């Protein structure tokens, strides 16, 4: 009986003896106790374990790795292989052909024990390097593939060709590449080398790449070596054990290639990425798994999945930037759409984008104009990305409510709308039809509200319904629908139009006429009636002015005045300035008015002296100056004309205005060196400019009627009156509300809150109280003992 | 100092020669606005004065005079309507 | 839903409503129905110092589509015992018929009606009994209150 123990390794004779014994035993059919096959194998394994361990010693690994990752690993594998061959031969003699699996299993276990994390790390490194190089080869030297076919091991070529067929029709096989077709576009060659990982093997990779790039024979050698290494991995049974390293290498490659596409939104890249990744994965599949039919295309599937996931992640995280960059980033959108559809992650993307927008766009630091621009970009982008508009709706909600909270939103939109270079103007001019007041309609978030006129969206968007009208609405309609009614836009446009018309010096308003026509197309002719009257006023004023000019010529009168005559009810009320027009100026006005009254009997003119612009020629002792000023500013000079030096109080009295007002108007002339302060609040005309500084009194360009000679300090009309006026208006509004409520209750009896609210909305113009506000208001009335609430109904007391 | 006005762009509002802020008794719209049937005030929607010195939008008064109940009387004082010359 | 309202009539009725609300007069009130601006409900209180002092009546005001060129139709919804009011609530008042003028409005109508209550016209009666009793104001009031209690009080 042979005494077996682990510390007593088997010698060659032992092995022979055991083999004979087993043979003898099996022939006689008598069970044999003693050293079993498993025992023998164990003992064998122990012997070899030590040897393998010696090969895998840390220092040895480090040295090999240090000198050359690629070839060092091959050397390492080869060393392992020779140990394996020796073991294999002896084990097969012990086990015989029928029990081979025992020997195999023992070797597997051995490998498990021997190959530690250090080796696996190295293996991953080696794979990553090799796969990158495979990709690089194809990218750099597609025209030398023909050489490869002849120079490479035919077995390897066959494997690779099969692999590339398996990778999909989009990938051209190695054989086909001989025709000169490039697998990937050439402009990516640089980026391979420029991959700036903090990769310790960076320099080796660069050397390897450089070597293969310089000489096609090097490619052949490289691929043969790599294929050989893969074959060894299979033989040595390392593949299944080291699956993490293998996947790790593939993952790293995928990630690196995806990262290269960060912020490159100007070209589509998904197809290319897919091709490259498939190529690499298919190669690995072919070289490692060629004889295990079940695991075929393992890496292919794995790599594709990871590619879509990582690319998706990248682009979704960049979506905010993509929107800002639109339309330069259009190409990125098509790619993203492919990904997101495949990953079925529209909704996550929508929520992630919404969060990004809330954090990075909707805050006090962003101007309303910026937010609007980005909203419009988002509309266009997201409609490309998701034609059903679900994502847009999810993302737009916070934008819209934030825009609603900004005061200048309507005026920004209107500004954009009427400027002829903008896209919104195109929408305005398009034949899309009249925009309806639909408020927040067109979208519901609950299945209960959906009826057959609403289209449910794809499965992903189970609870979001959009009307077809909403989905197809153009950008302008969407913007208008931020608010309940389009009235706010019309009013803002009226304000804008008035401003522009007042600013024209001649009576030409072609541009404004065009704008009004456009507005009519989208907002309806009825809404624009006020604007039509404004335009008519301008045309009418021109005719009037011509008549006045002719009459003045006949009478040989000097008539520098040209009036824009407005229909009072249709233009917003003008600011009021309290002062008396000096005789010289009033005379001119009266002449004009007189001629007007002859032309238009039964009508009178009321001058709006806060507006307008007077071009004055000022002849002083040593110079003549031309200045454009507001009428009230001109009035100051006329007052000073009679009395060249005046105290403020006297001036105010003469102009019949407050001292503050007079002072603010004087400041205009002080700034221009026409008037100076000789004593506290005493002013005189600067007849001779001793300072020699003519620049101060340089002529100002003629301004329109809207705001001539406006300076900072001119606009300090008393804001005190403004505040008092506002609170009076509020008190007035409250009183009206109460009268209405009282009228309702007196005539219709007790009413519930919602009836009161709806009737107020119907009959009180400009009413926009919310239910909550109304409730508090009625509670206040109840406290003042004017009405009471009983059984949900409000009643007069 | 000698001042000369070389050019003056001014703004004025026009109004009918009636007391400020008065409304037409028939349509309740301000005189300076137009009657309910018109869009543009002014020459296209003028006022009409009676010898009794009452004034209305011309369109409103004509509509009134055209109805049966009017009996061709001024709506204010029921005197037979005569347009002032 | 009622037929679309002529813009002119709507505008005029709306402005009448605003004036009523702003004026806020004692004893008279009116408000339009929410589903049809041509129909209003009115409330009239008897003037102090008249037989109708302390009594309150509801009215129905119906405006024609060519208002104000044609008079509105006013009827008492609350049964009203008065020489010039019949048992269906119809009112005999000249300004509501041939003496109508386009410058009249809800306010003037309601004020006239309030005056009518205190100052009946027994010459053209729709309610003979009331007309006959008019000269005896004390007795009139007694009968009136009885009638009010029986028919009008809610």
User: Number of domains in the coordinates of chain C?
Assistant: 1
How far is the first residue's CA from the last residue's CA of chain A?
Answer: 119 Å
The strand line-up of the biggest sheet of chain C is 1-2-3-4
How helix-rich are the residues of chain A, as a percent range?
A: 55-70%
Structural class of chain C: alpha+beta
Strand content of chain C: 5-15%
Biggest β-sheet strands, sense, barrel of chain A = 3 strands, antiparallel
Radius of gyration of chain C: 16 Å
Computed CA radius of gyration of chain A, to the nearest angstrom:
45 Å
CATH top level of chain C is Alpha Beta
The residue ranges of chain C in which pLDDT falls below 50 over 5 or more consecutive positions are none
Q: Helical element count of chain A? A: 33
How far the N terminus sits from the C terminus of chain C, by CA atoms, comes to: 30 Å
Structural class of chain A: mainly alpha
The coarse overall form of chain C would be: globular
Proportion of residues in helical segments of chain C: 25-40%
Oligomeric nature of the chains: heterotrimer
CATH superfamily of chain C, called what?
A: Ubiquitin Conjugating Enzyme
β-strand number of chain C:
4
Might you state the CATH topology name of chain C? Ubiquitin Conjugating Enzyme
Organism (chain A): Coemansia spiralis
Protein name (chain A): Anaphase-promoting complex subunit 2
Keywords (chain A): Cell cycle, Cell division, Mitosis, Ubl conjugation pathway
Family (chain A): Belongs to the cullin family.
């Amino acid at each position: 009986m042979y005494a077996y123990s682990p510390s007593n390794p088997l010698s060659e004779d032992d092995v022979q003896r055991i083999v004979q014994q087993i043979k003898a035993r099996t022939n006689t059919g008598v069970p044999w106790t003693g050293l079993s096959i498993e025992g023998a194998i164990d003992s064998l394994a122990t012997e070899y374990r030590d040897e393998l361990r010696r090969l895998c010693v840390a220092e040895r690994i480090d040295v090999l790795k240090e000198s050359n990752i690629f070839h060092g690993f091959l050397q390492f594998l080869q060393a392992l292989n020779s140990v394996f061959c020796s073991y294999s031969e002896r084990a097969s003699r012990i086990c015989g052909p029928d029990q081979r699996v025992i020997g195999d299993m023992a070797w597997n276990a051995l490998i498990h024990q021997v190959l530690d994390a250090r080796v696996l790390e190295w293996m991953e490194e080696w794979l990553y390097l090799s796969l990158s190089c495979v990709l690089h080869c194809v990218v750099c030297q597609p025209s030398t593939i023909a050489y490869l076919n002849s120079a490479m091991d035919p077995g390897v070529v066959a494997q690779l060709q099969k692999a590339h067929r398996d990778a999909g029709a989009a990938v051209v096989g190695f054989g086909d590449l001989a025709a000169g077709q490039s697998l990937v576009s050439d402009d990516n060659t640089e980026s391979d080398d420029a991959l700036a990982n903090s990769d310790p093997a960076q320099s080796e990779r660069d050397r390897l790449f450089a070597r293969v790039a310089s000489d096609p024979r090097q490619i052949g050698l490289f691929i043969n070596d790599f294929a050989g290494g893969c074959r060894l991995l299979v033989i040595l049974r390392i593949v299944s054990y080291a699956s993490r390293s293998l996947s790790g290498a593939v993952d790293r490659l995928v990630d690196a290639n995806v990262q290269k596409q960060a912020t490159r939104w100007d070209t589509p890249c998904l197809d290319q990425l897919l091709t490259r990744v498939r190529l690499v994965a298919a190669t690995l599949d072919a070289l490692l798994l060629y004889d295990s039919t079940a695991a075929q295309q393992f890496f292919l599937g794995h790599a594709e999945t990871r590619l879509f996931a990582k690319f998706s992640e990248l682009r979704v995280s960049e979506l905010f930037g993509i929107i800002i960059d639109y339309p330069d980033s259009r190409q990125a959108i098509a790619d993203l759409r492919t990904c997101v559809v495949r990953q079925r992650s529209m909704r996550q993307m929508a929520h992630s984008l919404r969060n990004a927008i809330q954090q990075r766009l909707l805050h006090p630091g962003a101007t309303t104009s910026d937010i609007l621009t980005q909203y419009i970009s988002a509309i266009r982008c997201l409609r490309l990305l998701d034609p059903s508009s679900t994502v847009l709706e999810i993302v737009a909600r916070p934008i819209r409510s934030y825009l609603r909270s900004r005061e200048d939103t309507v005026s920004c939109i209107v500004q954009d709308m009427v400027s002829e270079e903008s896209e919104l103007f195109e929408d305005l001019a398009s034949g899309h039809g009249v925009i309806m007041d639909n408020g927040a309609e067109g979208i519901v978030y609950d299945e209960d509200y959906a009826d057959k006129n609403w289209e449910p969206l794809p499965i992903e968007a189970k609870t979001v319904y959009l009307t077809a009208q909403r989905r197809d609405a153009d950008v302008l309609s969407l913007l208008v629908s931020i608010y309940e009614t389009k009235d706010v836009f019309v009013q803002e446009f009226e304000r804008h139009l008035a401003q522009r018309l007042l600013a024209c010096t001649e009576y030409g308003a072609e541009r404004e006429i065009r704008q009004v026509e456009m507005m009519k197309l989208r907002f309806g002719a009825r809404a624009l009636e006020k604007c039509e009257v404004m335009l008519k006023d301008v045309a009418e004023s021109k005719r009037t002015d011509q008549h006045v000019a002719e009459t003045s010529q006949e009478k040989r009168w000097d008539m520098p005045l040209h009036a824009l005559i407005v229909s009072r009810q249709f233009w917003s009320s003008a600011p009021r300035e309290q002062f008396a027009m000096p005789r010289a100026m009033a005379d001119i006005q009266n002449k004009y008015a007189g001629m007007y009254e002859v032309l238009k009997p039964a009508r009178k003119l009321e001058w709006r002296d806060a507006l307008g612009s007077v071009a004055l020629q000022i002849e002083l002792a040593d110079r003549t100056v031309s200045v454009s000023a507001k009428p009230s500013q001109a009035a100051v000079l006329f007052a000073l004309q009679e009395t060249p030096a005046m105290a403020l109080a006297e001036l105010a009295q003469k102009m019949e205005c407050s001292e503050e007002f007079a002072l603010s108007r004087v400041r205009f002339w002080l700034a221009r060196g026409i008037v100076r302060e000789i004593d506290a609040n005493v002013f005189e005309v600067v007849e001779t400019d001793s300072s020699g500084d003519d620049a101060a009194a340089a002529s100002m360009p003629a301004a329109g009627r809207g705001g001539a000679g406006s300076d900072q300090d001119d606009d300090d009309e008393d804001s005190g009156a403004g505040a008092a006026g506002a609170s009076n208006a509020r008190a007035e509004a409250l009183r009206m509300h109460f009268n209405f409520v009282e009228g309702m209750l007196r005539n219709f009896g007790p009413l519930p809150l919602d009836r009161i609210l709806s009737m107020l909305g119907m009959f009180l113009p400009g009413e926009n109280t919310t239910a909550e506000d109304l409730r508090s208001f009625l509670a206040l009335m109840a406290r003042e003992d004017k009405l009471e609430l009983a059984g949900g109904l409000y009643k007069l007391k | 100092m000698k001042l000369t006005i070389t050019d003056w762009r001014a703004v004025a509002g026009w109004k009918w020669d009636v007391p400020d802020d008065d409304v037409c008794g028939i349509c309740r719209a301000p005189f300076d606005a137009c009657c309910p049937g018109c869009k543009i005030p002014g020459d296209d929607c003028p006022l009409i004065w009676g010898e009794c010195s009452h004034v209305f939008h011309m369109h409103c008064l004509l509509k009134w005079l055209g109805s049966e109940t009017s009996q061709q009387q001024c709506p204010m004082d029921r005197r037979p309507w005569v347009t002032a010359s | 839903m009622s037929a679309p309202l002529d813009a002119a009539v709507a505008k005029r009725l709306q402005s009448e409503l605003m004036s009523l609300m702003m004026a806020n007069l004692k004893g008279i009130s009116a408000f339009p129905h929410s589903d049809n601006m041509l129909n209003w409900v009115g409330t009239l209180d008897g003037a102090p110092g008249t037989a109708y002092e302390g009594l309150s009546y509801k009215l129905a005001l119906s405006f024609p589509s060519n208002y104000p060129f044609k008079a509105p139709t006013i009827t008492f919804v609350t049964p009203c015992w008065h020489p010039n009011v019949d048992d269906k609530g119809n009112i005999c008042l000249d300004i509501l018929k041939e003496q109508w003028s386009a410058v009249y409005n809800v306010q003037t109508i309601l004020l006239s009606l309030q005056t009518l209550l205190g100052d009946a016209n027994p010459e053209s009666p729709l309610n003979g009994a009331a007309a006959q009793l008019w000269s005896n104001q004390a007795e009139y009031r007694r009968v009136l209150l009885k009638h009010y209690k029986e028919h009008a009080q809610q």
